[in-house]
């Protein structure tokens, strides 16, 4: 996102927000993947915000971020205006949303270009990720709700940064939870895969939270 107004509101260099101490990095166990893509979609009727933070699975360090506002296609302009003012007006970013939001199809193409630039997108091999995986707060972003971000942060005694339900801030906070898990010795495993032939989601843990 090169828009000056967007960049004025959102700093995409998150190294300062996601610091990693040497002592914490030393505790990270060998991981099966090289990168984690922390995703937290915002929206109810349609997706409104698409933020992703990429971290190194071995060092926990911030690598890059992707952030786009998404313009709905099925909602009326009046409904969009009311909804955006209600959701983003309190954060002071409703004007940025209106000036920079683009349709989901365009956002998805930009995202594929972004992960392709990091050599993580095998477009010619079934459109799958390469040595990386999406991390979400439970599988809620993938249609299954689990214990929320605020509960996890409270239990881990991690202070929240930014504003809850502003996607870019939420994805930073979820990333901090992932960093804590890694520093505590967790080996992150794939919990679900989307089947390329049917697009159905196959969950890999029998006792997952539903």
From TrEMBL:
Per the record's keyword annotation, is Nuclease included, yes or no? Answer: yes
Fetch the InterPro entries from UniProt. Answer: 3-5_Exoribonuclease, ERI-1_3'hExo-like, Ribonucl_H, RNaseH-like_sf, RNaseH_sf
Q: Which UniProt keywords apply?
A: Exonuclease, Hydrolase, Nuclease
Q: Where is the Exonuclease domain?
A: 35-187
Task: Look up the domain of life of the source.
Answer: Eukaryota
In alphabetical order, the GO MF annotations are: 3'-5'-RNA exonuclease activity; nucleic acid binding
Q: What is this protein called?
A: Exonuclease domain-containing protein
| Species annotation | Aegilops tauschii subsp. strangulata (Goatgrass)
């Amino acid at each position: 996102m090169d828009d000056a107004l967007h960049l004025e509101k959102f700093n995409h260099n998150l190294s300062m927000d996601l610091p990693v101490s040497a002592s914490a990095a030393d505790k990270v166990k060998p991981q099966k993947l090289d990168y984690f893509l922390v995703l937290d979609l915002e929206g109810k009727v349609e997706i409104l915000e698409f933020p992703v933070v990429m971290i190194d699975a071995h060092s926990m360090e911030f690598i890059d971020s992707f952030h786009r506002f998404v313009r709905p296609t099925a909602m009326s302009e009046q409904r969009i205006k009311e909804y955006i003012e209600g959701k983003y007006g309190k954060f002071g970013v409703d004007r940025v949303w209106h000036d920079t939001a683009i349709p989901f199809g365009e956002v998805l193409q930009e995202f594929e270009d972004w992960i392709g630039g990091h050599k993580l997108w095998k477009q010619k091999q079934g459109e799958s990720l390469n040595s990386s995986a999406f991390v979400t707060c439970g599988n809620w972003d993938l249609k299954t709700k689990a214990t929320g971000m605020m509960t996890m942060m409270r239990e881990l005694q991690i202070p929240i940064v930014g504003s809850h339900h502003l996607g870019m801030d939420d994805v930073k906070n979820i990333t901090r939870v992932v960093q804590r898990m890694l520093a505590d010795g967790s080996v992150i495993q794939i919990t679900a895969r989307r089947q390329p032939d049917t697009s159905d989601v196959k969950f890999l843990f029998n006792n997952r939270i539903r």
